[in-house]
Automatic annotation (TrEMBL):
The keyword Magnesium does not apply. The lineage of its organism: Bacteria, Bacillati, Actinomycetota, Actinomycetes, Streptosporangiales. InterPro entries: DinB/YfiT-like, Maleyloyr_isom, MDMPI_metal-binding, SCP2_sterol-bd_dom_sf. SUPFAM superfamilies: DinB/YfiT-like putative metalloenzymes, SCP-like. It comes from Actinomadura luzonensis. This is Maleylpyruvate isomerase family mycothiol-dependent enzyme. Residues 236-245 have a biased composition (Pro residues). Residues 226-245 are annotated as: Disordered.
Length: 245
């Protein structure tokens, strides 16, 4: 079977499926080392505890499984009934006993993997709609999940940092966020990764500000998760960016 061409951003379906699997291991290994009482404390996302974060990751797998069902059967099944219902489900999930919450997260991840494995070549090209209202093909679903498990493994605050994530994933993540930030208010940027790791232009207002750092540092910065290890022109601090994802 011919390998599908790489979509924009230099990532293939195989890449995204592999990163989903790797990110799931990274996330659940970190979670396994985290005592239940640590889930009660704050995550790295403002206003969320570890319980909220874990409930979100579990609900996200269920939501993406809805899109897989849509692609496989043609029956429209949105990710969430509404933004309000999504938020309510996360709050309700965060109140579950820790063992039940952990089991939900593991179960939903396994079910999503199983459902993705059932898609055939035609179904991978079926259009579905994201929670943000974008129409994409089912090819996008593994990438959406890879972002969730990788980035939120860092947000869990259990010792995983962006430097522990695969370089290919980090480059694809920067490409993805750079495109999305170009459509939102913010400063124009030119990102340069150390060691020839890549360069990205981020559209925005004003003359582009050059920001340099490692792939991990640039991914953390562009996603609004700190600016350690990245600098602007002449070693000055780079512009502040809001959180993404």
């Amino acid at each position: 079977m011919a390998t599908p061409p790489a979509p924009p951003g230099g990532r293939t379906r195989a890449d995204a499926l592999r990163w989903t699997a790797e990110g799931t291991v990274i996330l659940f290994d970190a979670l396994a080392a985290l005592p239940d009482d640590r889930l009660d404390g704050p995550a790295r996302l403002p206003g969320w505890t570890g319980r909220h974060l874990l409930a979100h990751v579990a609900a996200n797998a269920d939501a993406l499984a809805n899109l897989v069902h849509w692609a496989r059967t043609g029956e429209e099944r949105p990710m969430y009934a509404s933004p309000e219902q999504r938020d309510a489900d996360i709050e309700a999930g965060a109140a579950r006993p820790a063992a039940e919450l952990r089991a939900w997260a593991g179960r939903s991840a396994r079910v999503l993997d199983e459902r993705l494995a059932e898609l055939d070549e035609r179904q991978w090209t079926a259009p579905v709609r994201t929670a943000q209202g974008r129409t994409v093909t089912a090819e996008e679903i593994p990438w959406m999940r890879a972002r969730e498990v990788m980035v939120h493994a860092v947000d869990l605050g259990a010792g995983v940092e962006f430097g522990a994530l695969p370089a290919g994933f980090l480059a694809a993540l920067i490409t993805d966020i750079a495109g999305r930030r170009a459509a939102a208010p913010g400063p124009a940027l030119t990102l340069e990764a150390a060691g020839g790791g890549g360069a990205w232009a981020v559209g925005g207002s004003g003359e582009p500000v050059v920001v340099r750092g490692t792939l991990a540092g640039l991914a953390a910065y562009l996603s609004g998760r700190g600016r350690d290890g990245v600098t602007g022109e002449g070693g000055t601090p780079p512009p502040d960016l809001p959180r993404w994802l």
